[in-house]
Amino acid sequence: MRFWRVIEPYIGFLLQGFALTIAACLLAIAGAVLLGALTASMRSSGNKLVRGIANAYGDVFRNVPFLVQLFFFFYGLPELGIYIGAFETGVIAMSIAGGAFVSDVILSGILTIDAGVIDAAKVSGLSRVKIFTRIVLPIAMRVSVRPMGSVLINLVLTSSILSTITVNELTGAAKIVAATTFKPFEVYAVLLVLYASLTTLLSFAISAIHHRLNRFMTGG
Amino acid sequence: MIVAENVEKRFGETLVLKRVNLRVEPGEVVTILGASGSGKSTLIRCINGLETLSGGKITVDGHDVSTKAGLVAARRASATVFQLFNLYPHMTALRNITLAPIEVLKLPKAEAEARARALLDKVGLAAHADAYPQQLSGGQRQRVGICRALAMQPRYLLLDEVTSALDPEMTGDVLRILAELAADGTTMVFVTHEIEFARHISSRIVFLEQGELIVDLPTAQFFAEDGGLAVPRIRQFLSKMKKD
User: Fold this and answer.
1) H or E element, residue B5
2) Three-state DSSP class for residue A55
3) Cα dist. B133→A22, B130, B142, B244 in Å?
């Protein structure tokens, strides 16, 4: 089969790129969710300054193209005397950009919470931190997890842009193979399958988490 | 002792509580009566610190609720049961009850759960420990709410229209539990529209009218012709409630 003859010599190289993509995505998803939860908590804070800082972060990073953000970190950090690898820079940039969107989704989940539930937690003497981690965040998550899924899938797709800063993740590896073989169609057909399987897997995982978090809503 | 002195609460332009004075001694059951919007719930929410005072002072066992440390201590001394239950929807009945004892009182998990199960058993919900609030009826939810409050071993139980969202049969279940608590000597501040029940369990009744506490009498005197009933507004209020 002609298709396989073209791809076969490079499949190992492409899978290496795929592994790098998966690693970057897993790290960035963790970073984005943590940063998003933290930012959402700050945006729902009573303190004006805290709220202002969190809102400014969200506004800036939602409203600037990811490519520009990425170049800003890639070329800007060394200017500040910070030297980290391209892969690390990419993961950090993805976490920061993803966190801005995740915070939106979690915040909208927080805003759906019945104020009375928070009142009950307050009068029981729970600290603010405990109220957020044990009551607010878990309830917000059950509403937020599905829309967060779209954000995270978008983040996976965005990871292809890391190829522009010398990271040979899946797209970067494919560019090299396509340039070597002059067979871009075959190479990008492989990419299509690999990206689609990754995002499909992620979306199954999100569904599973959604059902797990909302199990107590059934049978009522 | 809970002491409210000249308590004022303002929402925007509206004065909801006007120089309210109230004392609740340990062992007392004090019922707060009054029409909707008279400030009853607001008074409860001032005592447990959910509303900040616009004027005056509230202390619980000497702890001033308007200070940060005072509020922490005051909330340790009291527990609140809410009209709309306000259970944590993502936790089972058992977890609803054990959360604060574990996190705030630092009880070991096993002990907190044993006590929670004993409380659930007492209110007839032993079989529902692992049910989520959504799976329980209103009356069952409120009984969990009462267990959650009692699990903190409060010296004062604040009850904010706890039966208003329940049908008569469920109301009966909840009131039976409250009567038992009163008989056990639990100190309660009880906001309610259940007049006959209030008459039965209260040591004192106070009446709020448009944010003013106009009458504060021992229960027998409150319902006496030459006591509370001598106040035209109270006579009118009680006769209307009886019709319903």
Assistant:
1) strand B2-11
2) helix
3) 39, 10, 10, 30
Which pLDDT score is estimated for B243?
56
Give the dihedral sign, CA B91/B94/B100/B104: negative
Could you tell me the residue ranges of all domains in chain A?
A: 14-213
Q: Helix crossing, A170-181 with A11-43: angle to 10°?
A: 150
CA distance A122 to chain B (A): 8
- Separation in Å, CA of B227 to nearest CA in chain A: 36
Of B76, B84, B99, the CB nearest to A134: B99
Q: At A114, is the secondary structure helix, strand, or coil? A: coil
Residues of B in contact with A219 (CB under 8 A): 134-135
Please tell me if residue B153 touches chain A, with a CB cutoff of 8 Å.
Answer: no
Residue A140 contacts B, CB cutoff 8 Å: no
Residue A210, min C-alpha distance to chain B (Å): 13
Which residues from A are below 8 Å from B89, CB to CB?
Answer: 117, 139, 216-217
**Which residues 6+ apart lie within 8 Å of B189 measured at CB?**
B2, B24, B30, B32, B44, B47, B156, B157, B158, B159
- The pLDDT confidence band at residue A64, using thresholds 50, 70 and 90, is very high
pLDDT tens digits for range B129-184: 999 999 999 999 999 999 999 999 999 999 999 998 888 888 988 899 999 988 88
Render pLDDT for B119-130 as a digit per residue (tens, 0 to 9).
999 999 999 999
Q: For chain B, what are the domain ranges?
A: 203-244
Chain B environment of A134 (Cβ under 8 Å): 99, 103
CATH hierarchy code of domain A14-213: 1.10.3720.10
What residues of chain A lie within 8 A of the CB of B106, using their CB?
none
Cα B147 to Cα A3, A188, B73, B95, B154: the distances in Å are 68, 62, 21, 11, 11
